[in-house]
Amino acid sequence: MALTSFVEVDPSSHFPIQNLPFGVFKPEPASPARPGVAIGDYVLDLSAVAAAGLFNGPILSNSDCFHQPNLNKFLELGRPAWKEARATLQKLLSSTEPILRDNESLKQKSLIPMSKVEMLVPMAIGDYTDFFSSMHHAKNCGTMFRGPQNAIPPNWFHLPIAYHGRASSIVISGTDITRPRGQGAPSGNSAPYFGPSLKLDFELEMAAVVGPGDELGKPVDVNEAADHIFGLVLMNDWSARDIQAWEYVPLGPFLGKSFGTTVSPWIVTLEALEPFSCDAPKQDPHPLPYLAEKVSKNYDITLEVQLKPAGEKDSSVVTKSNFNHLYWTLTQQLAHHTINGCNLRPGDLLGTGTISGPEPESYGCLLELTWNGQKQLSLNGVTRKFLEDGDEVIITGFSKGNGYNVGLGFSSSSTTTTTTVTYTLRNDQPAPPTSAQIPIQSSETPIPITVHVPQSAAAVKIQSAYRSHLIRNLYKTIAAVHSEADEFQRLIQRQETVDAVRSSEREKLRMNEALMKLLLKLDSVPGVDPAVREARRKVSRRIVGLQEILDAIVQVDVDGFWGCGGGFGRDYWNDVVAEMEEGVCRERGGEEMERFCAEHLGFRCLQRFLSQP
After folding, report:
1. What does pTM read for this prediction?
2. CB 126 within 8 A of CB 167
């Protein structure tokens, strides 16, 4: 008789009682994070179940692993604890077990609608490695860049190739991804392109979550590696293909990959996937002994990618693949990772690499689907070569059982941008006249602008528009610092401020600290343009002048400059400033005097620039 739950589960749901994937969630925004299990449209709060004393097995009865903000402590306990937890939860949620089913108070407390919770990355990821385990993906990429004769390098068939990724930029499904900036390959004898990536791509992947690690210097046997893998998540390892292509020789991916990786919130355990295990592809040549498995298996997991273009209501399926297309198995990947003595730790993430199949409709990224932009995808009347700002990528995965699904849910994220233009590259469009300008954003609300230009012209135009926007923002930062300097000058014109500085060393130090903070703000402005550097230098010189005046207040008798009634008039103040500046200039030479004189005129020019539309 099939196992059923007292919680109503739709037959199409990814989360029946046969699955029970683990995740971490917040029931309310201000609530602490806690572990949970998905059942139908609900999340079972494991901290509430544990607090009720329902984890009463020999391993978990005295453990606080379900009172943690992540799953790492549970992962570290290993397969016996995982099996105990799964057996307990399946019993508690079964339709024939009254302990939770008939306890209305506990049921109300522990079963929370999935629509009301906030899902988080379920584990603290110390390290992240991304493999390159699909032969079809390797062959397609190699053919594009090296030709069919040298498509797959000889070492690929002897070891699972991988690179070390960036754990800090791994985010949960639903998190927007900002279009990265970086360098692209130069055209002809020109300098390398710098600006927003023009070839933003998704990658259909899955990733293994590491359970117990291994000691440094002690590799994991390939036939025992499964005991170190808790389960799988869906993963989208976003890629900037133009940045990646320019930077990856000789050390491999860097900025083209490290800007964002999205994972699904639910970890499906290997126990739940066991009914869907299948033979792995035959490996030729036979792997070296440390990678030779007694039983070499993959999993039959149907994978699909949908792309929803910005501004469109409907998404289109662009990829249908399967986990069983992987050449190198999960256990081979983990064993190879540790063969040199490298120690893995609970919560580490091992990505499979892009999962592509043999047919064009099973290719796992836009790089392959459009053959590096040589052809377009048609999406309900909208075309794409690579991702545009606002596009949404939705990855789903599930295994079909007898009357139920074991699914991973979905991984969904949209692309955003820090630039002020969106763009569509169409090679059949004529180049714009040389006088054409791309508008740039002049308000806080993004204004999307689509520019139809050839790719070669697009790079130049987008770079120019972005640079203008960047320089304008840098000028605004400098102007804000100058405004704070104005406020500081007005402050030290006051008699009570002068008295406080003269009578208290602490007050003088506090004011010096305030001026130092202004200088640090200026130091944070990058000198990307000569005009920016000059404006930054002028305002910096003014702040240094205020520091010198602050020092002089203590040392110089300025009583003769007070106005009638004890007020410190602006005319008298200007005379004091002028005299001090002249003294400094006499010591430092005529060139410095010219800079002081140009300072105020230069800033007025800057204000006029900022007021232009």
Report:
1. 0.70
2. yes
Q: Which residues in 401-544 belong to E strands, given as ranges?
A: 405-416, 422-425, 450-453
Residue-level pLDDT at 164 = 96
Residue 538: CB atoms within 10 Å? 20
Neighbour count for residue 569 (Cβ, 10 Å): 14
Per-residue model confidence as pLDDT tens digits over 395-420: 999 999 999 999 998 887 777 653 32
Catalytic residue among 14, 136, 137, 228: 137
For β-strands 392-400 and 382-384, DSSP reports them as: unpaired
The residues, ordered by sequence, that sit 6+ positions from 191 with a Cβ below 8 Å of its Cβ are none
Residues present in the chain in total: 613
Q: Which residues of the chain have pLDDT under 50?
A: 418-456, 557-574, 576-578, 580-613
Active site residue 469: no
Q: Give the CA dihedral 26, 32, 36, 39, nearest 10 degrees.
A: -30
Are 421 and 335 in contact by the 8 Å Cβ rule? The answer is: no
Check residue 284 and report its DSSP letter.
S
Token pair 């792995």 is found at: 280
| Cα angle for residues 202, 206, 210 (degrees, 5° grid) | 135
Return the CA Rg of the chain.
31
Tokens (6 digits) for 100: 């939770």
Which tokens belong to 587?
A: 């010591």
Euclidean distance between CA atoms 395 and 205, whole angstroms: 9
In the chain, what is the greatest distance between 2 CA atoms, to the nearest angstrom? 101
| Beta partners for residue 274, in sequence order | none
